[in-house]
Amino acid sequence: xxxxxxxxxxxxxxxxxxxxxxxxxxxxxxxxxxxxxxxxxxxxxxxxxxxxxxxxxxxxxxxxxxxxxxxxxxxxxxxxxxxxxxxxxxxxxxxxxxxxxxxxxxxxxxxxxxxxxxxxxxxxxxxxxxxxxxxxxxxxxxxxxxxxxxxxxxxxxxxxxxxxxxxxxxxxxxxxxxxxxxxxxxxxxxxxxxxxxxxxxxxxxxxxxxxxxxxxxxxxxxxxxxxxxxxxxxxxxxxxxxxxxxxxxxxxxxxxxxxxxxxxxxxxxxxxxxxxxxxxxxxxxxxxxxxxxxxxxxxxxxx
Length: 303
Known about the structure:
Blueprint: H1 16-27, H2 33-38, E1 42-49, E2 53-54, H3 58-67, E3 71-74, E4 81-82, E5 86-94, H4 95-129, E6 135-137, H5 147-157, E7 170-172, H6 174-179, H7 184-195, E8 201-205, H8 208-217, E9 221-225, H9 231-244, E10 260-264, E11 282-284, E12 297-301
Parallel strand pairs: 6-11, 7-8, 8-9, 9-10, 10-11
Antiparallel strand pairs: 1-5, 1-12, 2-4, 3-5
Helix pairs in contact: 1-3, 3-4, 4-5, 7-8
């Protein structure tokens, strides 16, 4: 996972700070009447983790309070799993500004930590079935305006973030293929012409025949979408890798191709084993970032 090689926050785009400013302005678009009541006394508040989870979202939490002139001291490392009740951090500053940032900071941290927790849990299950399982990846099914924190949380949890946006990689889904008259080869050629050598092309395939067409057309990644986990998926992957991989020519004399196989659709904690198939390179799922249970945090002023 990326965190083994450096500090995750160093990968963040500069624009995330503007998002924090927008979220603070959204929460206080006019007068802060509660802030008027409490005044400017310097206080400290304790961030408490009240449900089990994996901590994620630290740089966003920090930035909320930095913009409000407060400091944050962490007692729990990002990516660390904790049990409640855990004193994760201490925030110091004027009481007015601590309370002004409280809800924005907690909302971000709860969501990011929920994603990292779900991701870490699913990775643990995958590793129970293989010491070197396929890469686990998220999807582009993210919350508008909140994509960077959600993708960041996936990485903290140990998953691959997958493409960040339409410019990161060309993914030809069923609608793209249908819009090209069902001609996968034509769609791949057009995509490669537009993206050039530096942009990978992935094709979503509903059948093994479509995957064969995509591989022959030069797709870098073929996604086997909604294949039944277990025997159906395993047999299809074995035939594709046998036909186009392994040696100067595939088993059937086909030209050797360099490609990855991604599987997607229907992954749950109960059927994980059926997706851990030899030859699968990536398992992608939105279940690790869509509709996940948030981790419960509170910020309590010391008095």
